Amino acid sequence: MNFNIDDQGYLVNADSWDEDVARAIAQNEGIDKLTNEKMDVIRFMRSYYKSYNSFPILNTVCKNVHQPRECVNEEFIDPLKAWKIAGLPDPGDEVIAYLKR
Predict the structure, then answer these.
(1) How do residues 22-77 score in pLDDT, each as one tens digit?
(2) Does residue 11 contact residue 25 with C-beta atoms inside 8 Å?
(3) Helix, coil or strand: residue 60
(4) Contact 70, 62 (CB under 8 A)
(5) For residue 18, which phi and psi values (nearest 5 degrees)?
(6) CA-derived radius of gyration, the chain
């Protein structure tokens, strides 16, 4: 498995993502196991990004993967970890500031 991440932990080439890469990035982010629920969140984030080229509203993620309203925070604690594990690029300072409120 060959992939590169940048200094902040984001996958350099989103096309090199697969579930093995996701598991490796998760380990890097301190998450030992990617459950089916976590993978559902990750897959939805990737799909949403491919369609809209932006970070999804977190409640939308949970609703679409049929999980409780705060599923991203419950599953990952930090939504940026989910974003990184999904192999998506840095969402930008505005999104990061919003998520850290």
Answers:
(1) 999 999 999 999 999 999 999 999 999 999 999 898 889 999 999 998 888 888 88
(2) yes
(3) helix
(4) yes
(5) -150, 180
(6) 12
Is the CB of residue 44 less than 8 Å from the CB of residue 73?
Answer: no
Q: Token pair for residue 37?
A: 């629920």
In the chain, where are the structural domains located? 14-99
Per DSSP, the three-state class of 38 is helix
Three-state secondary-structure class, residue 72: helix
CATH number for the domain whose boundaries are 14-99: 1.10.10
The Cα 95–Cα 80 span in angstroms is: 9
Assign 9 to helix, strand or coil: coil
> How many CA atoms are closer than 13 Å to the CA of 65, on its beta-carbon side?
26
Evaluate if pTM is beyond 0.85: yes
